[in-house]
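Q: What does the assembled structure look like for these inputs?
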Amino acid sequence: MSVDPAWLGTQRLPEVTVHASGVLAQTVRAELRQIRRSRTDTEVALCLLNRVHETPLPAEVQAAVPSDVLGAEGFVVVRRGDQVVVAAEAGHGLLYGFFYLLRYFEWMAGDFTVVERPATAVRMLDHWDELSGSVTRGYSGGSIFFRAGRVVEDLTRVRSYARLLASVGINAVALTSGPLPDMARLAAVFREYGIAVSLAVEADDQAAEWWSAAIARMYDAIPDLGGLVVDGVSFEVANLVARLLAAYGGTLFYRCSGVSGLDWRDRRADRARAAYDRFVPLDGRFEKNVVLQVKHGPTDFQVREPVSPLLGELQETRAGLELQVTQEYSGQQRDLCYLAPWWREVLQTELAGQTVAQRIDVVVGVSNVGDDGNWTGHKLAQSNLYAFGRLAWDPAADAVSLLHEWAAATFGMDERTRAELVGIMAGSWRTYERYTAPLGVGFMVAPGTHYGPNVNGYEYSGLGVQHFADRHGVGVDRTVASGSGFTAQYPEPLASIYEDVRTCPDELLLFFHHVAYDHVLQSGVSVVQHIYDSRFQGYAEVEAMVAGWNTIADRFEPAVRENVTTRFEAQLANAREWRDQVNTFFYRLSGVADTHGRRVHR
Amino acid sequence: MSVDPAWLGTQRLPEVTVHASGVLAQTVRAELRQIRRSRTDTEVALCLLNRVHETPLPAEVQAAVPSDVLGAEGFVVVRRGDQVVVAAEAGHGLLYGFFYLLRYFEWMAGDFTVVERPATAVRMLDHWDELSGSVTRGYSGGSIFFRAGRVVEDLTRVRSYARLLASVGINAVALTSGPLPDMARLAAVFREYGIAVSLAVEADDQAAEWWSAAIARMYDAIPDLGGLVVDGVSFEVANLVARLLAAYGGTLFYRCSGVSGLDWRDRRADRARAAYDRFVPLDGRFEKNVVLQVKHGPTDFQVREPVSPLLGELQETRAGLELQVTQEYSGQQRDLCYLAPWWREVLQTELAGQTVAQRIDVVVGVSNVGDDGNWTGHKLAQSNLYAFGRLAWDPAADAVSLLHEWAAATFGMDERTRAELVGIMAGSWRTYERYTAPLGVGFMVAPGTHYGPNVNGYEYSGLGVQHFADRHGVGVDRTVASGSGFTAQYPEPLASIYEDVRTCPDELLLFFHHVAYDHVLQSGVSVVQHIYDSRFQGYAEVEAMVAGWNTIADRFEPAVRENVTTRFEAQLANAREWRDQVNTFFYRLSGVADTHGRRVHR
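A:
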């Protein structure tokens, strides 16, 4: 079976001359040999800056290069009439310039100068693939890397993946560590596309000697290893490993783990507090090459959470932001949920005068790919992988524009169809939010699988993620005044905004407050009526998505048509379960009927 | 590791003469060679009736044999002074007579005559062991039969198991079918103990030719195969297979499967109705060698259910009663739950003038053994296996007396300790009921595992086992007047008793009725107060069990002491979760405080 080219199957370029040498220049040349030729008289050159004199626009390029240099990954694009030059200081910039060209060439018009540099130094995808070949929280088949305890023989698929990642600016991946000669084979493929491999290891109780020897062996096999990813080790072990890595120039990516063993009986036991409570006291005590990898929200990738306050408080520790491209809690690639609007919101959230994007050195996404023919299970979920890379590069990018880019590149379609498809997809995160857990309360999911509703599924667990719904009201009191005090972890003005039930945004109300069912939201309706309204609306929106898709489905190739149609059917069924179970649950508790007399099952 | 002898490790007998030949007589002789000798002058003889003249009491035995003969499995025991003779018509009777002697010899006093015959023809244990070696709903380690797709090489353990089963009168087992030469090896071991093997096969869509060839091969390998166990096949296939089996004298055990795909929104969709609705119309249309294997209750082995009404309605179909010795919903051998009192209640329930025991030809228990050192995970759970066999033989046996028998045989202990142990164990089923789902409502368990509480765990499933708790009340309306009409499946007087909320027994109230929280039970307290009371009481009873155990624990060998002590700690934690989660759930819903002011978490 040939590999789905995803968003790299439709582009054309004219003849391009390359004025550069090195590994990544070779990669660009190899890419150019495979791209279909466009019929145009435009003359295009790609160069390293020290060879810009070989191109048609040396003076224009020199003038465009900013005084503070491009950096290893930046590039400049200059177009004058029928001449286009893309120039970079180093191989990475050349590679990203090439993919910029590939992405935008057919849309270029007029004279322009563009300078591009990534906002964040490390743009990384984590892979929860196990050596057995299964993928933890994977919804797209098995691993593309591993099978039966070994790295797969044929790395064609891995190479295609590396190419997709590089095309959206990803420069790092983390993989479960397996036999080192095998891992070196994988690293060699990623290296061709400028992607550094880091290894995730589980080794909680090992002594310094063990770590020292293990790390030496890893760098022996992969001299340009990015570093290690660890989870659940102590602060002391993290620093120990970081010191060992420092000798090789490696980074320690230290995941802030969740908590368990909380008592549901104790309303002050609050999972949301855990990461801040644990790591803020350690700020300043970490080695310089430690990146504290923080989940974007304080609980666990729910469909709506506030931003983790830990990101606003770290002063002397490098911070990484962890997002989930895999849709663990957002439909698992059965339901369509385009997450970029939310990721952008997270990245642009201001904490103590700086946006999250400004506060981080690393953006990590948990990958959503597997060995399914279309990579992501749901064909349209490719858009999340695409947008993740693009936002990691440019956190201010517009999520809808990225969707247009992706759709055009993926389907090469006419503008009207593209607009219709984008119209179906753009609001799908908010739609998903509407039919699932209301008002930021989260975790009303089936335990274990995390797909589908189970309103009380985690209500009596040891995870500290309850909703505390009773016959009078619902929500988690995380205020200083009467609750867990979590709001105090935020800088002003957020601390005050979240603390006050009158100013807390509706969509986060139940995350921060326990309120009566008749509490009136800023939107003007009561909490219980909002629960009914938003669930009916969410379901209706899925119906509209399906209807919209049905009007354009026959313009797609059969495999895409069938894949998306089937997934939409499943999504409609899922949305119906969510709507009815959540509505019935709260009707049984509150006894309040829907104002509009719609069907809420007893 | 030597195999735990369970209840066969303490007995002594004097010299016994055997006047019989055949396979089972050989087994008895081999057993006698291993039994420790008691110092007594009593002269004991075991014989087949046609050789009774070789024994000391031929006339007394002849006089004791009833006119309608003993049957193949019956035996007579005559004691006169220092002479005891046990006589049977056939090998099975001889074997069971021998185990009777082993069980009671040390307690025998005075002259007496006893005639014993089993109440039910087939007394069977089903084994949900998979060829892989795991045991579905097994809580005692892996399979004693299978490992990695094969039958285990060393059958010592299987032989010990067969001996334990024969000693309590089991004459049949069902095993997952594996490679036939392997299965023949297993059948040979069971054959020595008079136990017929049946094979469970999954073969839904096979044609007649396939079944014909498969059955021929099975009987080729195991000429005395008991038959086949099938699940989920159509009526037509069942009859087809039964006709093929009839040629070999085999039986088809046809399990009445559960249902799924019901809609929780539909209050008339009732799992409890399913077996009756499906099989009553087929009554009279089954082949004579079909046994319809009916779960004892209408849902699925809950800790409290009414008896399945299907057992009262079948007129022309042979019925089998299926019990679970494995404690799927009753504590999974982590919690102590001696089930015999309930099984006896089921067996003695009268349906249309006959007890369940009288209405059935077969009693089946799903086995609770695995390769754990003590067979059953919880040492004291051996008592369930023991009592199952003894009740299958004699459904009128007293459950507490059986416990005394088992405890004496297992531990050979002094009477005071035995009385204390029996006191701890005898009420453990009702204790388990008290701290788990109240008033017969059932299914408030963790989905999947079925251990531990999850009050809403199955509330929105497709299994039709809801509790419908809302802010006003709780329970399943299964009445004819306003509910699913399930009560009409019972014969009178049960139909009327269950239909009327005033006469329905408290312990089944919520199985049959949806009532308000302030509904007053026959016991005089309200439903919600009963919920609190029984959970607090259940927990206190576990505390008392643990305290009782701690006073006698040091009289047991270390392995038993540690095993039981550890399990009791887990049970106490489990009872606490049940108590608190159920109480909080209903407090949140009802808003009614505990009358006695005990701690119910908000």
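Chain B touches chain A through 30 residues (CB under 8 Å).
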